[in-house]
Amino acid sequence: MIPPLSLCGASMALSSHTHSFSVLSVSKTAENGNGRRRGRMVVKMAASTSEMAAAFEEGQLERPKWSGKTPLSRLVGALIAFKPLSSVLKLGARQVLIRTAEKGDIPWREMTKEILESDVYKELESIQNPSLVYPDYYLNPFHAYDEGNLSWLAAAEAEPATMSMVRRAIPNASTVDEANQVVRGNWLQAIEQHHLQYSRTTIIRDILDIGCSVGVSTRFLADKFTSANVTGLDLSPYFLSVAQYKEKKKGPRKNPIKWMHANAEDTGFAPQSFDLVSISYVFHECPERAIINILKEAFKLLRPGGTIVVSDQSPKSKIVQEMSPVLFTLLKSTEPFLDEYHLTDLEGRMKGVGFINIQTGLTDPRHRTLTATVPC
């Protein structure tokens, strides 16, 4: 079904604004029938934007005081630049990540061991593009790994790290699955609502998941849009090998997911190849020049009326802004481009590339989702 052509024409006049969509949140039930408190969690749909604001609160600043070019940010940067201290901070950050995950019933070390002792290594030859030249920023250490994302250990630990991120975002959730109902559920809902409202067609035939890592977000997209052809793209052949290995273990799909080892700034795909381009938790690991180039590539790859969705840490999140000095110092020690990301005007950059109907909002207490459209 193709909506009236006036929809695309009318949408051209719309400017960036806060995205108002229903939102899932998790809360504790106060008491049982006997007046006793109980710990069961309930996932509920917010009926209004005011309820969303109550569940997912923005802070009073544009970005945290510990990021950007503030005196506090410079002090933390100077501490991190001191190599002996930097090594200690990275080790501490890694230990905190693993300990926090396992306290939240995420078997980090067990999951990592399972991948490292599997046949995942056999996938590398079919995945890796040996002629690919890595951009300079990608060769930086990330997430306390000296090799960044170019190692088997980083690939083996990517899924438990993602699960831990989701649990931290929704601390009241009793399980990772329950937290995912909020984090991934709101993200998928934002995509669906935006595409239905602004696209010239309700059909999503082809999806590209940029920076797909080990395929967690890619599988959510494939499960949601079952008739679509889904491609996961990443710069790490190790991450893609894990993605392909895990997908094979899950059994065949009607439309198998394709995995591509390529640079998101220059994917090699033909123009207007996709109806939806998704970029999840990628831009905080990129310098602004790469962010701009990836947005330009996404704009080129989308068909007229196509949708882009970007999800990442929100500088306006109250929780992010109020992070403790210990935690934000550990965080910055493992994220070399976090300051640059927080200083980037994503909405402005998207508008500059040519996207319209740019909408943004918190889809969980820590992360924002931006959606936009390629003009018809």
UniProtKB/TrEMBL annotation:
InterPro entries: Methyltransf_25, Methyltransf_Superfamily, SAM-dependent_MTases_sf. GO terms for molecular function: methyltransferase activity. It comes from the Eukaryota. SUPFAM superfamilies: S-adenosyl-L-methionine-dependent methyltransferases (SSF53335). Signal peptide: none annotated. Residues 207-306 form the Methyltransferase domain. PANTHER family: METHYLTRANSFERASE, METHYLTRANSFERASE DOMAIN-CONTAINING PROTEIN. This is Methyltransferase domain-containing protein. It comes from Salix brachista. The lineage of its organism: Eukaryota, Viridiplantae, Streptophyta, Embryophyta, Tracheophyta.
